[in-house]
Design a protein that fits this description.
The complex is a heterodimer of chains A (200) and B (434).
Chain A (H helix, E strand, L loop, with lengths): L5 H12 L8 H12 L4 H11 L3 H8 L13 E6 L2 H4 L3 H12 L12 E6 L11 E3 L2 E3 L4 H13 L32 H4 L7
Parallel strand pairs in A: 1-2
Antiparallel strand pairs in A: 1-3, 3-4
Helix pairs in contact in A: 1-2, 2-3, 3-4
Chain B lengths: L21 H6 L4 H8 L2 H11 L11 H9 L5 E6 L8 H8 L1 H15 L3 E6 L4 H17 L14 E6 L9 H8 L24 E5 H5 L1 H7 L1 H5 L2 E2 L2 E2 L1 E8 L5 E6 L5 H6 L13 E6 L18 H6 L8 E6 L4 H15 L5 H18 L7 H12 L15 H26 L6
Parallel strand pairs in B: 1-2, 1-4, 2-3, 7-10
Antiparallel strand pairs in B: 5-6, 7-8, 9-10
Helix pairs in contact in B: 2-6, 2-10, 3-4, 3-6, 5-7, 6-7, 14-15, 14-17, 15-16, 15-17, 16-17
The chains are: A alpha+beta (200), B alpha/beta (434).
Chain lengths: 200, 434
């Protein structure tokens, strides 16, 4: 086990310790790995398997169920345009078509320079600002074709770097409090101790 | 019907730009409900919630008090917060997570105290990165403040709260799928019975799963009493509720409204709420309660926003979403897009849902593109009938969970309300709306 950086390995072990069963940390660890590499590499999958006590195939099989976990490389910026009903009624189909032309790729594709991956997303729960999209899971709403072009230009020039962290970064706030976050030990809770192994 | 002067219960702080901070929360009565709860017995707290007649705000509308009562008889091991808001056009929990995370944390601790739970998990939809950051920051501050952790406010009661990120899967909003996901597996719903979370939940232990908005009501309920809450609204629909208004409306957004006292017409047309259909056009149809719900037409505009009233009219308030379609909206395209969503999000466990959703999506797509046949309308209904026999409301099901039986809602609605328009696509060989 050596793919995850020492800092991420420490984070990963602390995450595992938060749960009565290590397996629960599988998805959170996939997010940590994606934050490090931008996508879920086979090496990271091996590390995660070891950390939660299962096989790499099992981690891959689980991760592939979830839309946000990418088991192939993606661009620096993953642009996810919602086309579900609320955004569709507000012009999302035109926005997606414009994005395809502007970036020269279809959903699932990545620009040759590796900057942008385009995705057609399901409802992102920001319908008050439809049509909306996410870049690396940060929201941008009320988009027009011109607004999209300006957003792409800002991303290229790096002016949005503080708002849009690199792909895979979800929660930048680390847990600092809590009964079980101290030294990475198991939860010191009676209820947690009473849970039978393999209870489900 | 009218817009009432009911108090804002869960959105009282949102006019402040720093509503998510501990400072603002404490300055506006924050954690007072928890302090009061800790001075009561857990049974008394539970009794107040029962008296409030608080219906679950996630979608199913099950009374929260009764959900708890099922568990108070036996020890509960875990409290799980469902923050996996993914029902299309629903964006109220997103607002609460980002803008008032302490209110949720306080609600979680109150619920944990009432249930005697010492471990809680807040499952936040993965895409809501800012919401997750706000909740984690609120928790960090709450631990520091002594509102979460061991010996809360010196009461001797302690609970640990862990934020768990989702990773993009609509089905994980279904409570048993959410539990599977929280256990580190694919979000496959479990069959009920026997897997009612109250009996066999997280790690096989008795578990309560409550929605973000549901729990966010608790601080107010404890502080003001269950009776004050149930005095708002009418009948089974007590209190206020968040409605997420979207689509072809001037002012889309989330509005807190007293239940039953306000109608769909008020919500959509009142200047202080929806402000009317976009560009002054005519209303064609509304989708109440999320895309799993059967549609209404203009004739339903004066229906009150109440759970039983909407249920009796053949649909549901569901997730609190209301989508407006105007007279330029192609109903067939709307039904196709919604079906495409279900097809993409079907977990694949059950054949009728996995295969049926794909067939329906293909048939709807060819119809919408003008390449369909007249018989396709009956074919659609036949496939729907195989997923939800009889295509009734509420639906029968041939599947483990209700995702499959939700698919026919939009299709049957479009056929029932706009059959001629669908057939026009066939006759003209193209979508009449271009």
């Amino acid at each position: 086990m050596a793919h995850l950086s020492p800092d991420n390995l420490e984070r990963a072990r602390a995450l595992v310790a938060l749960y009565p069963h290590p397996r629960s940390a599988l998805v959170p660890l996939c997010h940590v790995a994606q934050e490090q590499d931008g996508w879920l590499t086979p090496e990271a999958i091996s590390d995660i398997a070891e950390l939660v006590g299962t096989t790499p195939a099992d981690v891959l099989g689980t991760a592939s169920f979830y839309d946000m976990l990418h088991t192939e490389p993606v661009g620096t910026y993953v642009v996810s345009i919602c086309t579900n009903i609320a955004c569709m009624l507000r012009g999302a189909d035109d926005l997606l078509r414009h994005a395809e032309e502007h970036l020269g790729i279809h959903p699932g594709g990545t620009t040759p320079d590796g900057m942008f991956t385009l995705e057609e997303a399901e409802c992102l729960a920001d319908c008050g600002r439809a049509p909306c999209l996410q870049v690396n899971h940060r929201f941008f709403g009320n988009l027009t074709a011109e607004g999209f072009d300006a957003l792409v230009a800002d991303l290229r020039s790096g002016t949005l770097d503080s708002e849009v962290p690199h792909h895979g970064t979800l929660c930048r706030i680390r847990r600092t409090g809590g009964l079980s976050s101290g030294k990475g030990g198991p939860p010191a809770m009676a209820a947690a101790e009473s849970v039978p192994e393999g209870g489900s | 019907m009218a817009i009432t002067e009911a108090p804002r219960i869960v959105t009282s702080r949102l006019s402040h730009s720093d509503s998510h901070t501990l400072e603002r929360y404490l300055a506006t009565g924050g954690y007072e409900g928890l302090r009061k709860a800790l001075s009561m017995t857990p049974e008394q707290v539970a009794a107040e919630v029962d008296a409030a007649s608080l219906l679950g705000r996630g979608g199913a509308g099950f009374p929260a008090g009764r959900k708890w009562a099922m568990l108070r008889k036996a020890p509960v091991t875990y409290l799980v917060v469902n923050g996996d808001e993914s029902e299309p056009a629903t964006f109220k929990d997103h607002l609460l997570l980002e803008r008032d995370p302490h209110q949720l944390v306080e609600g979680v601790v109150i619920a944990a105290y009432a249930l005697g739970v010492t471990q809680a998990f807040i499952y936040v939809r993965g895409e809501l990165a800012l919401g997750m950051e706000r909740v984690q920051a609120a928790l960090n501050d709450a631990y520091e403040h002594g509102a979460v952790g061991p010996d809360i406010f010196g009461s001797g009661f302690g609970v640990d709260v862990v934020v768990h990120p989702g990773a993009g899967a609509y089905i994980c909003g279904e409570e048993t799928a959410l539990i599977e996901s929280l256990e580190g597996k694919r979000g496959f719903p479990r069959i009920k019975p026997p897997y009612f979370p109250a009996a066999i939940g997280l790690y096989g232990e008795p578990t309560v799963v409550n929605n973000v908005e549901t729990l966010s009501n608790l601080p107010w309920i404890v502080l003001n009493g269950g009776a004050a809450f149930s005095a708002l609204g009418e009948g089974r629909s007590a209190g206020t509720r968040l409605f997420a208004l979207a689509g072809k409306v001037r002012n889309p957004g989330v509005y807190e409204i007293e239940m039953v006292k306000t109608t769909f017409r008020d919500l959509i047309y009142a200047p202080v709420l929806g402000g009317g259909v976009l560009a002054g056009r005519d209303l064609k149809a509304i989708i109440p309660g999320g895309v799993s719900a059967p549609w209404f037409g203009p004739e339903h505009l004066d229906l009150p926003l109440g759970q039983d009233e909407v249920g009796a009219a053949g649909s549901m308030l569901g997730s609190g979403s209301v989508v407006v379609m105007d007279d330029q909206t192609c109903a067939l395209r709307a039904a196709w897009r919604i079906t495409k969503f279900f097809w993409r999000e079907s977990c694949g466990q059950c054949t009728p849902c996995r295969e049926g959703s794909g067939w329906l999506e293909k048939i709807l797509r060819r119809l919408e593109q003008g390449a369909g046949r007249e018989e396709d309308v009956d074919l659609l209904l036949d496939v729907c009938d195989n997923i939800a026999p009889g295509i009734t409301w509420p639906p029968q099901q041939t599947t483990i969970c209700v995702l499959g039986p939700s698919i026919p809602s939009s299709i049957a609605s479009a056929i029932r309300m706009f059959r001629d328009e669908i057939l026009l696509h066939v006759k003209e060989g193209a979508c009449p709306y271009g």
